[in-house]
Design brief:
199 residues, Glutaredoxin, four-stranded mixed β-sheet
Amino acid sequence: MAQVKIYGSVQSRAARALWCARECGIEFEHLGTDSKALKADPEFARINPNGKVPAMVDGDVTLFESMAINLYLAHKYGKSLWPTTIGDEARTYQWSFWGMTEVEKPLLTIVIDTFMTPADKKNPKAVEDAKTALQSPLSVLNQALKGKSYLLGDTFTIADLNLAAIMAWAKLVKLDMTGNSDVANWLDRCLSRPAFRGK
C-alpha cells in the first residue's frame, strides 16, 4: 500500500498535488473523490479540520493547502523539481505564493461564471473586471519569463508546476494572451508534460 495518500477530486485543487506526485514518480493512493462524503468523515476531519481538499498523508505527516503539499512533496521526493540554491528556493516560494495572491482569485471568478453559474445569474461585469485585474500580473510574469524557458531558468521546477497549476484555468476559459506570448508559450510547455495529463 502506498504511503502517500492524496485526498480530493481531480476537479478540485487536489489536481495540483496529483500532478506533483506524478512528477515525483512516487506511488500514491488517490482517495476521497466525493467531497461531501469527506466532509462527513470524522477520520478526514483529523487530517484537515477545515473539511476541504486537498489534503495529504505521508506516514505521520498530514498537510492541507495545495501549495504546502506540493512544496513538501517536491522537497522530499522530487529531486529534479526542487531548486538547487537558496535563492531559487526563495523564488519558488515567491512564485507559488504570488500565484495564489495575484492570479488565482480573478481566474477563479471567470471559471465560476463561465462554467458553474446559471445563465440568469451570470455577471459579465465581474468577468470583465477579473480579466482587467489579470493584465498586470500577466505582464509581470511575461517579463519574468523573457529569455527563459522556465521561471528559474532552463529547467522545469516546482515553481513552474505550482504556478502553471493555477494558470491552467486560463486555458480552460480561453483567456486572451495577446501581448503575453512568453506566458502563453511557458504555459504550453508546462501543460504538455505527461504528468500533467495524468501519465
